[in-house]
Amino acid sequence: MKFKNVDLASLENLYYICEKSSQKELEFIRYLYNNDFSNFDENLDVCKKLELLTEKEGKLIHTPANKDFKTLVISKLIEKKYSLGSLNSLLDKFKFDRIEYVFYPSHQEKIIHKWERFFLNDIGLISINENKLIFNDNFLNLLPNKKISLKDLKEKNKRKEELGEKAEQFVLEYELKQSKFFPFLPKNVIQQVSIDFANAGYDIESFDKEVAKCNIYEKIFIEVKCVNKEYQFFWSKNAINKAEELRKKYFLYLVPSNFCEKKLKIIQDPSTNILQNKAWTYETELLSIKEAHNV
């Protein structure tokens, strides 16, 4: 299978045209798709291989899903990878290297798998970093029979902890820079609470920049998360409760793992603007369970 002319936007457009169109004839779907996109046949081929679409009697039928499209593509791709030829041969070359699931391609392998690399990077399954390809560890649980040793798991958790600490330092420095524009602010207005109060439900106390423009000081509470390029993060029940309590005084600072300030996302009142926002998806990964003695 060739991936030269295949990308996530084209697959998604084709999928949703089939989902929303009342007419399902292949040639009509082709006409709608070609209004804004190109390479219909290549993208249709991938959709069919991934069983996102099926063709019956000249009509295209979409497979209903309860996931966002990117996650749907990735889960289907891993499930069906053995029918995807060159993509399968590339994914089989990944190995655990301490805390990462990686592949170090040779110059020749970079040429052979050029379009597969670009496609996997486009859908967010891998990232391309200098001379290695890094598998997105948010999807490791989808891989069958991939074991990680206790030592590697500890290394991985240690790395996450280090990134979290760096993210908090990044936000501290960012807030200090912002405070210089408001000389009326009291001293020590920016405090890293998490050092002495790890279960506060937030990490940093700072000031509201919009209110400060009127020469008024109002405290805000910042929860810091170091995120991947999908801006995925884990949020504890304690922190969610604090966000619901503080509402507009509570902010999430989503810091990209490359610490690029331009890609920093700041979200006020995340209990509303994330948990009640269809632009964000979430799922439960851990359950707190105990025996019921009064049943």
What does this structure look like?
The protein is 38% helix and 17% strand. Among the domains are: 55 residues, no CATH class; 124 residues, no CATH class. It is α+β, with helices and mostly antiparallel strands and 295 residues long. The mean pLDDT is 90. Strand 3 and strand 4 form a beta hairpin. Helix 1 crosses helix 3.
What is this entry, summarized?
This protein is an alpha+beta fold.
User: Tell me, what's the shape?
Assistant: globular
Helix-and-strand structural type: alpha+beta
Query: Percent range for helical residues?
Result: 25-40%
- The H/E string reads HHHEEHHEEHHEEHEEHEHEEH
- Uncertain segments of ≥5 residues (pLDDT<50)? none
Tally the helices.
11
Give the strand content. Answer: 15-25%
Radius of gyration, in Å, reads 23 Å
Summed over residues and divided by their number, the pLDDT gives a mean of 90
Largest sheet: 5 strands, mixed
Spatial sequence of strands, sheet with the most strands? 7-8-9-10-11
Features:
single chain; 295 residues; alpha+beta; five-stranded mixed β-sheet
Give the topology.
Layout: H1 8-20, H2 26-34, H3 40-49, E1 53-56, E2 59-62, H4 69-79, H5 86-91, E3 95-97, E4 100-103, H6 107-112, H7 114-123, E5 126-129, E6 132-135, H8 150-179, E7 191-192, E8 204-207, H9 209-212, E9 219-227, H10 237-246, E10 250-256, E11 265-268, H11 270-273
Parallel strand pairs: 9-10
Antiparallel strand pairs: 1-2, 3-4, 4-6, 5-6, 7-8, 8-9, 10-11
Helix pairs in contact: 1-3
